[in-house]
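Please go through the protein record below and explain what the tokens say about the fold. Record follows.
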Amino acid sequence: MLTARRRAAAAAVILSGSLLLTSCGGSDSGSSDAKTLTLWHYEAPNSAMGAAWNEAIKEFEAKHPGVKVKFEEKGFEQIQKTASMVLNSSDAPDIMEYNKGNATAGQLSKQGLLTDLTTEATKRGWDKKLSAGVRTTSLYDTNGVMGSGKWYGVPNYAEYTMVFYNKDLFKKYGIAEPKTLDKLTAAMDTFVKKGVTPLANGGAEYIAQQYLYQLALSKADRSWVDKYELYKGKTDFHDAAWTYAADTFADWVKKGYISKKSTSTKAEDAGVSFIQGKAPILFSGSWWYGRFQTEVKFDWGSFLWPGSNLTLGSGGNLWVVPKNAKNKELAYDFIDITMSKKIQNLLGNKGGIPVAADASAITDPKSKILIENFNTLSTRDGLAFYPDWPVSGFYDVLVSETQKLITGSENPDDYLTALQQAYDKGAPKQ
């Protein structure tokens, strides 16, 4: 996700001795006598991925005497908006984290900006470590559509969305953990009556559109997801699922569950409002989990969206090697280290979802719950990817149109019409 982020048919990625995922391989290599590996990623240093990758950097430098990792922290939005331009220049890094899906990694692969990693994936065994479902976002065909073709990226973690909630605030107002959507709605009504806006939201980035997509998923099934994400049939934005989602989201704004002032807030603002105990509920991804373990001072918990078999999720963002990278062999070595048991086990205990860890090595209680819920989703084929994935530029359309729903400047029917037009313009002709 988008991170924002965040974004085929999802199959199981199950932790049974090791969590399996897929990745990419590459055929051409950079210089072997390089002294610097330039690395870009946008994970917070105290997130599970940030902590694991910092350790991977130390491991890499220890195994490559004389070679230094030049890490450049980038914002998710920054990379999202400038990747094509930067990767088409001599300023491309050797390796970077990039969002997965047709509209992002698929688009770059179609433009010829990414290295084909197929050979490396086979030679280094990444293809054996990743399950078929997670591997979906590593492979792209000549049209940039995920699920088949060549390896252009390697995820070393998985992710999914969940409801984070402030147990102390729930207890203060006498609210039990909601087990159904009706109970969740009743809880939000109680908070509103007490003058508390229940849902943390970031209308300027991915948070808002993911609330809406989850509402649609609660009325959808796998074939609906395949139509939308993989073009296996016609997507109708005025169908029952999308209509329910848009109507319900607009209604939630009117009822005060979502603040009308949240149109300009970013994902970081939403996460911080939860961390500071201002918002009792945040629906977002597992990429927050490690940070919450570190920064949240109150009692908190998480649960899967009630009443839905599907939720947003997939393999994590991808390690990609730009076509113009100068030190590709070093990049492949770094990816390999992030897939090692040592780094995978660390990632799991820091609140991430590893893809190749030892189950017995995950000892942190909250991390165990995180992985157990992920396995529940995997077992029921519940990963439904992200709403912005299908077509290039759709992320920005979703942000701007969902902002209009929040302000009330657009009604749900017109909102869905705008999405339909943008989707049809970018999707392959059927």
Remarks:
- Residues 36 and 68 are 5 Å apart (CA to CA).
- The first strand starts at residue 15 and ends at 16.
- Confidence is low (pLDDT under 50) at residues 1-32.
- The two ends are 28 Å apart (CA to CA).
